[in-house]
Amino acid sequence: MTPEQVLACPPRVLTQAQREFYFSEGYLLLERILPDEWIQRLRAATDELIERSRKVTKSDAIWDLEPGHRPDAPRLRRVSAPVDQHPAFWDYVSQSLVGDIVADLVGPDVKFHHSKLNFKWARGGEEVKWHYDISFWPHTNYSPLTVGTYMYDCGMDQGPLQVLPKSHLIEPMPTQYDHDGKWIGCLRDEEAAGLDTSKAVALPGPAGSLTIHNCRMLHYSARNLSDLGRPLLLYALTSADAFPYTVNPIRSSKDQAIIRGKRAEWAHHDPRPCLMPPDWSGGYTSIFSLQQKEDRAAA
Asked: Hey, what domains does the chain have and what are their CATH numbers?
């Protein structure tokens, strides 16, 4: 669906002004919008995953570990596909108001693409450099968006998401390959240095808040140098008429599941081109390992 078609549908949760802001600026911050019951359930599920990680000794398709991870002092960067690791994470995206909020932004038929639970561990959780999402998992249109859930309060010291408003409208989209043609999962240093980051907007928020950004949005987050960790639960969701061109880099049993409405009979093709990623069929760890140059196998 086009933005005009989406905006013509009656909203379920968001105001029309919020929907128009999203299409104009490329993002939303919805503070304290989640009921406390969901937050408590997600916290408990996250604690269970952290406990399980104590037995993990090296990164794999599910667990992405910081180099200093130990059984007595776990330091996670990511759990991939948490919807397959604990039922609370699938119940949340499929049953909470998240699906209705996304329907207000992509249309009444909403499809799941992937999920991940990112951590910025206390006292040094790594930065995520300026990048955009869609070239990791290109689709036939640009409806895909990412919903971030703050399970705990997230302040500026913890490295919240930062976005560059209206950057989802940039044409052409910048490359995320280096000068040697290797995938780096972020902008080249000279392109990042050329961004007018004085216009960047940080999105800290209290527990129960949601961040939403379009798949073309340039975004970044700083290191976490505070004494508090910053887990961020992320879901990539799309309109039902958006179809992936490539293998999903984060494999899940829920891939392409419809969480609102019905399956699409026709694909919607956006005429704007999209940068393609490497071949993910051989596996993928995380944006952290790519940007920190630990994993060049995918390049």
From this structure: 3-291 (2.60.120.620)
DSSP at 11: P
CA distances 145 to 91, 152, 200, Å, are 19, 22, 19
Question: Over pLDDT 90: what percentage of the chain?
Answer: 85
Strand partners, 238: 111
Token look-up 């359930």 returns 41
**244, 290, 298, 296: which is closest to 128 by C-alpha?**
290
Taking alpha carbons only, the member of 78, 32, 22, 31 closest to residue 213 is: 22
Alpha carbons within 13 angstroms on the beta-carbon side of residue 222 total 18
Q: How far apart are CA 148 and CA 29, in angstroms?
A: 9
How far apart, in whole angstroms, are the C-alpha atoms of residue 164 and residue 130? 9
For all residues of the chain together, what is the average pLDDT? 93
Tell the burial category of 97 from Cβ atoms under 10 Å away from its Cβ (0-12, 13-18, 19+): middle
Asked if residue 73 has pLDDT above 50, the reply is yes
Alpha-carbon distance of 143 to 244, in angstroms, equals: 11
Mean pLDDT (whole number) for 154-183 = 96
